[in-house]
Amino acid sequence: MNPVFIPGPTNIPDAIRKACDIATLDHRSPAFARMFRPAVDGVRRVLNMSGGEVIILPSTGTGGWEAAISNTLSAGDTVLAARFGMFSHRWIDLCQRHGLNVQIIETPWGEGAPLEAIAAALRADKAGKIKAVLATHNETATGVKSDIAGIRRAMAGHGALLFVDGVSSIGSMPFDMSGWGVDIAVAGSQKGFMLPAGLAILGVSDKALAAMDSATLPRTFFDFRDMLKSYAAGGYPYTPAVGLISGLAASIQMLEDEGLEAVYARHARLATGVRHAVAAWGMRPFAARPELYSDTVTAVQVPAGCNGTDLVKLAADKYGVAFGVGLGEVAGTVFRIGHLGMLTDVMMLAGLATAEMCMADLGWPVRLGSGVAAAQEFYRGSVALRAAA
Amino acid sequence: MNPVFIPGPTNIPDAIRKACDIATLDHRSPAFARMFRPAVDGVRRVLNMSGGEVIILPSTGTGGWEAAISNTLSAGDTVLAARFGMFSHRWIDLCQRHGLNVQIIETPWGEGAPLEAIAAALRADKAGKIKAVLATHNETATGVKSDIAGIRRAMAGHGALLFVDGVSSIGSMPFDMSGWGVDIAVAGSQKGFMLPAGLAILGVSDKALAAMDSATLPRTFFDFRDMLKSYAAGGYPYTPAVGLISGLAASIQMLEDEGLEAVYARHARLATGVRHAVAAWGMRPFAARPELYSDTVTAVQVPAGCNGTDLVKLAADKYGVAFGVGLGEVAGTVFRIGHLGMLTDVMMLAGLATAEMCMADLGWPVRLGSGVAAAQEFYRGSVALRAAA
Amino acid sequence: MNPVFIPGPTNIPDAIRKACDIATLDHRSPAFARMFRPAVDGVRRVLNMSGGEVIILPSTGTGGWEAAISNTLSAGDTVLAARFGMFSHRWIDLCQRHGLNVQIIETPWGEGAPLEAIAAALRADKAGKIKAVLATHNETATGVKSDIAGIRRAMAGHGALLFVDGVSSIGSMPFDMSGWGVDIAVAGSQKGFMLPAGLAILGVSDKALAAMDSATLPRTFFDFRDMLKSYAAGGYPYTPAVGLISGLAASIQMLEDEGLEAVYARHARLATGVRHAVAAWGMRPFAARPELYSDTVTAVQVPAGCNGTDLVKLAADKYGVAFGVGLGEVAGTVFRIGHLGMLTDVMMLAGLATAEMCMADLGWPVRLGSGVAAAQEFYRGSVALRAAA
Amino acid sequence: MNPVFIPGPTNIPDAIRKACDIATLDHRSPAFARMFRPAVDGVRRVLNMSGGEVIILPSTGTGGWEAAISNTLSAGDTVLAARFGMFSHRWIDLCQRHGLNVQIIETPWGEGAPLEAIAAALRADKAGKIKAVLATHNETATGVKSDIAGIRRAMAGHGALLFVDGVSSIGSMPFDMSGWGVDIAVAGSQKGFMLPAGLAILGVSDKALAAMDSATLPRTFFDFRDMLKSYAAGGYPYTPAVGLISGLAASIQMLEDEGLEAVYARHARLATGVRHAVAAWGMRPFAARPELYSDTVTAVQVPAGCNGTDLVKLAADKYGVAFGVGLGEVAGTVFRIGHLGMLTDVMMLAGLATAEMCMADLGWPVRLGSGVAAAQEFYRGSVALRAAA
């Protein structure tokens, strides 16, 4: 009944719920192809792809990571990755479990991808052993966004592929696959696309596709080759998640009706308001510097002696509101406010007001209404007059 | 996307939307009867009826008023009614248009039904010309609740029927048809029952039913006799609104799962929080005295020089949030906050925060966050720990 | 799970269910006006109106009949009506209950409106006492359609209004309000418009509107004057059935996407297939002559010694399929197959196959598959290749 | 609008659509755990498991196959499998792509799993190199069911695991994981469970679980270990498909409300009726012998000179009805009628009637109504009186 304020899955708009909730359709029929094509084309526009292919798997972001590496790499291959949060950690772990040699750049949590260190590692790789660089565009655990264009610049002169986890950024924050030179971008249905979980959505560059045939990591469910062969015939190698694909087409329609730039601006506004509230509470985002602040999730550093997980638990139990706990090494020291997907200023204020009540309940040194007022002041000054809906 | 804060129609819970949204069912089949019976029985419990009959018309509250009089009265009959708001006015107007002689007790808006004046009028009616007393339980225009039990006491010794408009109270505020001696109670689907508009729901006492045969006001669509004859056979005299009846059964299930007393207590809490906010803004409810304060709607008196309608318009245009304007003689001098139906503390705070932003936008002398803080303080202190849902 | 084959309410397409199932919207907001206007304009096109006004009441067809007379007539006025089925009978009964003097032309059931007798009655009315002629376009009880254009011709030279019950024809069979000179056309949401019950939809000519002010039958809920005044401001005099109005806009979109002519042709095809099956069973429609055959419902005359109601009961109990029983004087001697609204050839064959199983179960002299085969032969020969949906 | 008659995805009942279509829920909250547990427990009952664990992956049947082998086997391991249709073929292909050594028993299509040959192969495997036997319970391509209990008997004395593809049988045909000694059973959401595609549902025996730690095939998305660790905490290692899990709980409720035995009996009845129709058309199922006939899908052998794919294409294009084409070596020589999931006799007759129209359109030597009549005769004689729904 209350909206959720977790960094995904996000609140699902009614129109998308209805687009997902459809009667059974023969997925081998032209009707399916007519539904699938606009979804694929729309993903291209959201990712800003030129060339390459879109792959949509009935899976999740984790499956998307696995598909990215298993279709392009072979056991023993080296990849380069920075670890600065739970999600960058998990992708590294996945690579290791699939027999890759991961050259890890340990980076303090709260920082983003370390461009210098990446550049240095690649310069040092005279033999060209590094086949791919893995980057987490938006580290959902710490609320940190990384500079993907900068990573590509840091890779200048090296032939490695660039794989980007955009699960919690794509559709909510600007993404420029073509301009940034991304080889595989991984998104999930349940974040910026405002759908239920159940789709891994990948943009794959021509260069990454060229690696398919030599890659020997075993895969069937995730095999791009089967996918592309079936897509060419308007279908799938196995039963697709038809409802979610219908919903994806609706999602893209909704994003483009609002305008992608307007969607990104709305997320920036929502996030800025949240950060005003955080400051009014006398706290700060966990992200090390303003230029790292994510526009989709804020990990709020809680005052000394306070425990962020207590707040999250109380919000759920007492007020029926979901926030995100701190994960891994920031467990307890942060709580996370998701501000992505279908959210309005008004909903956001409800979330902030709830967080404040929890703080007061827990005896944290925060004045009721203070964060709300700061966000109100920002929102009322920055909102555009709504067009007639 | 944002909840509405109008005094009805109210926000519809998902479970009720789903119960309304059903495939076509033969309304002459036993399946319909199986759905209809629990709805009828549930209404009896919500109204606290003993004896009498429940009548459910595919209509609205206005239709319910018309049905109440046309099934019990004849042209030229006298009824007694106090006028103290737009909805009491409209019922009076309806009676006049149907040829009744309405003895009107003009009462200042902001007041409730005047018990003394009613008692006096009945005492003066030695000839027993007054056939019915009309009472508006909750005057939606002014946020005033009246003392129905008191009206019945004021009627002591007089044989008139007591007809009560409970459209914006029933299902949200305590109602005791049997204990209060109400002869016809009129409810609508779109308020406390949390359904779409489309049903007039009436409780009719045995005494009121006894007037059916002598009443000569013309009616067919609203005729209780056709209804009761058809109900006895498990059906309707014409096509019923099957989906809404399915939804009504679900609504009653939901109200009773929460517990009617808990539902009423929740509304009282929501309303109290709103009134704390209003006080913090330096304003007051339009209702004349605290014992008249409605638990489903607050008409907020705006400061001198301010116009409540401006706030309502701005909230809709700029923030996508619906409040209610002042109607009739309080147009401009109040705006109305609906706090009935499916609402949580958290949603309520979003509404209050929005009202504050509008006040600031309009230059009203209100500090951002002030009302929110007052409501937060009240809500966090009074909420029961949510049971595991 | 199985479609219904009753002559309304009809099966509701998914797209219309979704359009009806919407979150609460402020009905006093411009958003409502934006939804209402296309619905009204669409009704004009379906009715083929020029001039006049569309009135949409949160009610049913019966309410539409009541609204038609109460807004245009006064107690004691004379109306002319033929009685040849249950629905023409009910409208007459309604008029009598509202104090009208109904000049009834008793006509054998199975016949349509008797043009000669109507002409004669009007010729005889030298004094012009007949204020309105009531006509049932499609008598749902007998499966008979009447010639409305013929009635208007029969009225030549007389000033009476022409009121038409098109509840079970409009949206499924051609209707030409302007060409036929209809003054009030009454439709319901739950037939050709494929919506749930809950809306009475009326087209009202300028001539009928002109009668509003002198008409003295009491009405408030149904009062056209309040409606038109509110419509002019984009609203309603009371709470409208917002979801159904949203659904009506979707219904008209769907009808016009298919094309009204194509919709009518589909109904004619469906009906013809049913009649082929009836003939193969050795039975005949109850309608007296082929030119009276309705394209929305067939009342099948059952063989001597058989009881149509038994079939309807068995179909519901054993096979979960709804047909219509015979009503009034044809109870038992017919059963009714509805073939209107969202139905395909394929669904129709399921209905016919079920009827056959019931006949066999009841020992009626019918060969299994015979009616199905006749309908199959007709359908497969007449279906247009489906356009890519 | 018309039901589908493909062998999955199946028609989704309204109640299941509604259970899937839910607002976003925090999947790390107790609310999710409360939804997940009944789904898991219900799957245990449907599979008739004792011990072991249920694994539910946001994936499809193909993913379920991959999960089965990657969690229990290592590259170079030998598995034994019979190939007698497209789906047994695909599982074999998957194993090979993951580096397994598949000992294939080539078996004529139309036959089931060859018990003698399996027994012989295992007897010959003195060294115990065969780690697992793969069996396709219901070969969806040929409409053949295999004797899983018999396979287990054929395995007597050999230590191999028994993995069963039950994607198109589980929930529609009796399955006895415990009694038959199945080690991994693979189901999908979109067949007998009547859900959209998007879940692979596995029952895993304790013996199979014991193989987890030594298995070295790489996996992360499909890793049982992560799943089981997270399940123990009421959660998932990544974002689950919450709506489908909610739907799965509803599906099991629906299956158990009808009664699993009744569900199986209904499928047997539906299938028998279809086979009566096939016989009346002068055709026969592709399955070699009656004891192999599947109760969920019939592959109909078309007459010489006819092409089954033409029928499927025509049914889709002309009548809007989906059947299944022949796959692989039976392309053209069969068409497939799915008769599983939410289907009634009445819907089945619509499918048979459509197939007949297509046959007539294509000039096949079939009399219209003949198959329908045969099925009608069977259905009407075998249906139980429907309990009051």
UniProtKB/TrEMBL annotation, chains A, B, C, D:
<feature type="binding site">
    <location>
        <position position="336"/>
    </location>
    <ligand>
        <name>substrate</name>
    </ligand>
</feature>
<dbReference type="InterPro" id="IPR024169">
    <property type="entry name" value="SP_NH2Trfase/AEP_transaminase"/>
</dbReference>
<dbReference type="InterPro" id="IPR054863">
    <property type="entry name" value="AspGlyoxATase"/>
</dbReference>
<keyword id="KW-0808">Transferase</keyword>
<dbReference type="InterPro" id="IPR020578">
    <property type="entry name" value="Aminotrans_V_PyrdxlP_BS"/>
</dbReference>
<dbReference type="GO" id="GO:0004760">
    <property type="term" value="F:L-serine-pyruvate transaminase activity"/>
</dbReference>
<dbReference type="InterPro" id="IPR015422">
    <property type="entry name" value="PyrdxlP-dep_Trfase_small"/>
</dbReference>
<comment type="similarity">
    <text>Belongs to the class-V pyridoxal-phosphate-dependent aminotransferase family.</text>
</comment>
<dbReference type="GO" id="GO:0019265">
    <property type="term" value="P:glycine biosynthetic process, by transamination of glyoxylate"/>
</dbReference>
<dbReference type="Pfam" id="PF00266">
    <property type="entry name" value="Aminotran_5"/>
</dbReference>
<feature type="modified residue" description="N6-(pyridoxal phosphate)lysine">
    <location>
        <position position="191"/>
    </location>
</feature>
<protein>
    <submittedName>
        <fullName>Serine--glyoxylate aminotransferase</fullName>
    </submittedName>
</protein>
<dbReference type="InterPro" id="IPR000192">
    <property type="entry name" value="Aminotrans_V_dom"/>
</dbReference>
<feature type="domain" description="Aminotransferase class V">
    <location>
        <begin position="27"/>
        <end position="326"/>
    </location>
</feature>
<dbReference type="InterPro" id="IPR015424">
    <property type="entry name" value="PyrdxlP-dep_Trfase"/>
</dbReference>
<dbReference type="GO" id="GO:0008453">
    <property type="term" value="F:alanine-glyoxylate transaminase activity"/>
</dbReference>
<keyword id="KW-0663">Pyridoxal phosphate</keyword>
<keyword id="KW-0032">Aminotransferase</keyword>
<dbReference type="InterPro" id="IPR015421">
    <property type="entry name" value="PyrdxlP-dep_Trfase_major"/>
</dbReference>
